[in-house]
Design goal:
By secondary structure, the protein is mainly α. The chain has a single domain, classed as A middle domain of Talin 1 (Up-down Bundle), CATH 1.20.1420. It has 14 helices and 4 strands. The strands form 2 sheets. It has a two-stranded antiparallel ribbon.
Length: 365
Amino acid sequence: MSILTILSLIGGFLLLVIGADLLVRGASSLATLVGLSPLVIGLTVVSYGTSAPELAVSLQSYAHGQVDIALGNVIGSNIFNVLMILGLSAVIVPLTVAQQLIRLDVPIMIGVSALMVVFAMDGRIEQWEGMLLLMGSVLYTVFLVYQGRKESKLIAQNALCPPGDALVKRTPVQILVSVGLVLIGLGLLVVGGRFLVYGAVEIAEAMGVSQLIIGLTIVAAGTSMPELATSVVASYRGEQDIAVGNVVGSNIFNILTVLGTISMLGGIPVSTAALRLDLPVLLAVAIACFPIFYTGNRISRWEGLLFVGYYVAYSAYLIMNTVEHSQLGVYNYVMLLFVIPLTVITLLTLVWQHFPHPRRKSTRE
């Protein structure tokens, strides 16, 4: 492994983070111009902007014939987004979850994750399936923007001011600056994606690690750095709608737009390893969001630690499986028979405690 390979990997990470930051700044500025709420901005502009590295890297990987990296990047990024990013954000400050996320966006995230698993079950995601995913992305985005504009008008009416007054007035120079930031950010993402893919492939070949594992770990974590930085900073500054909306929106975007785009180019083969472990983990992580978000409309610190712990456990399994560790069987036994069942029982108990029971209601009355 040469110094050039290491520099390419590090340089790619840095360019992705800087490019995503510029893209988010410019896009958020433009979104404010049309009067979108922080949650809608988090679900669309911020999440799509921070997910642009996934799109750039997946397209670069696909163009160079590294299909497993492209697929592993989507799966690994979604797992990393929920378990590590939401987990760390909640550890810093417990996160309040908006009702819209529980009613609409989390069920959509679960639905598209299940659809991805269904499409992949025959060992390949076809072009027409990619087209369906991409069409779903367009419909979801249009719906969110429509809902956001509708909410902005209601807020303006309740404030007894014309809807136009609720929008931020900008000069042509400010608009040009915002568009310029978006274009520069996109350019850096493309260049950073090339460097990152080159470095990741070289490392995989040097270490004898499969492309799928590299995509699930190094590339996925690297392309999720913008989401991590955005959500952690937003959580620290009290912008919790952006922190949570960024993760949920990014996961939906990754499946519908990123996977849809690369699948539409020529279809994607899905390995047996991904079908056996990584896709079920992806679906389980998406489903786990609902009971945690539902209980008290918040993500507490201990739930954040639970998410982080599971990401560490998942990563440990990938490493142990790659090196064929002698204790892998014991590790699987402990996780399947003790840790996972205890977690499921705990989450179901929490949901039951927060569910409105008729007897409790009559007692209050």
